[in-house]
Amino acid sequence: MPAIAITWLRFNAVGLLGIAVQLAALQLYRQQLGWHYLAATALAVETAVLHNYFWHWKWTWRERQADASSLLRFQCTTGLVSILGNLLAMRLLTGVLGLPVLLANMISISVLYLFNFLVSDRYVFRLR
Q1: What is the domain count for the chain?
Q2: Is-contact 103 90, C-beta < 8 A?
Q3: pTM
Q4: What is the pLDDT of residues 19-37, one digit of tens each?
Q5: Which domain holds residue 11?
Q6: Which of the residues 104, 105, 115, 119 could staple to 94 if both were Cys, CB 3.0 to 4.6 A apart?
């Protein structure tokens, strides 16, 4: 199997776990703590971003020997786009269209998915 296919499979496995982390965090912040859906979304996304970074560093792109600057690159690309993209999508899908918070969040995650892979593969965990 080509290396990119293995990387893609690993990325998807981490991504699925990250989705579970994000949705669980969103549920916790929204339902248990009573936060506004946008504040809950921002922190839930950041929770998932940190989770995903760790597993991408240790497993998905482990052969690329990421350094401390890779976390900064991840936060400034995937993290920033994920937070802003999720907030915009949630404002539209929940705030304007009235979709339930978890459904709207799953839609916003799926819209940003391919971007996150490409940026991580080509920039964050780039070959040296």
Answers
A1: 1
A2: no
A3: 0.91
A4: 999 999 999 999 999 999 9
A5: 3-124
A6: 104
